[in-house]
Amino acid sequence: MKIITLTTDMGLNDHYVASLKGTILKSVPDASIIDISHSVSPFDISEAAYLVRSCYKDFPNGTVHVVGVDSEPVVNFSGADGSFPSVMKFQEQYFVSCDNGFFGAFLKEEKPESFWRMDNVLSNPRLFKFPTKNVLLQAAVRLMNGEALEDFASQFDEYKNALTPVAVTESNLIKGYVIHIDSYGNAITNIDESLFYNFGKETPFVLYFKRKEYYIDEISGAYNEVPQGEKVALFNENGLLEIAINRGANNSTGGAEQLFGLRINDMIRVEFTPKGSRDTIDSLF
Prior knowledge:
single chain; alpha+beta; Rossmann fold; 2 domains; 7-stranded mixed sheet; 6 helices; 30% strand
């Protein structure tokens, strides 16, 4: 099976995504095309990296992921300011994007199996008018048709890393940030489960955000562990701390985004209270 995924900031109101799919099917009629998202905020490569990172493990080996976000090449042979169309092989899958920071944001602390820059990107500047279709997809199609990377790309040792917020720890404290708001209005943070439990499985804590009356002092295993309409904190499938409203959503009764005013890049604080360090929740504020 030949599987290709698409992640773009093109939306679905125009013809662009249909053009991408038509181009794929013309060259690979038996391709299975999966949309990860076409609602990435314009040019937001960090959001694209989060979305692809959240689901790539669900795909089989050999899947080709095309990321058409901020995809116009910027060719600068004299330094690191260029944004070259590139291909990364990672965990037996292929990721095709411009080297605009996506690869570093996706990998975090991990390393790729190999990284390649596409050759001859200057051969036809007209291709830059729709680079996701005319440059990135062409590489994806060649991979799906069994061509080797060395037939159209050259191995390279470096790739860029987008500036993304990182959760930090201090004495009895984690400072993290909201990195994504999903369609329910749930706020996903960059605080991962392993970092959180470095402070101990049984250590009391208070997670707070926006205003002092907005706090949560327990981690739930599922949304329904709290009553309907109540705020809840849990670690999602990808091990990231999430703040939500049980059975709440932006288009109905209101999700965490609407009810708490949470936004991307808002700080989330988790204060841990080892035995003897605090007496009451009120003393945290």
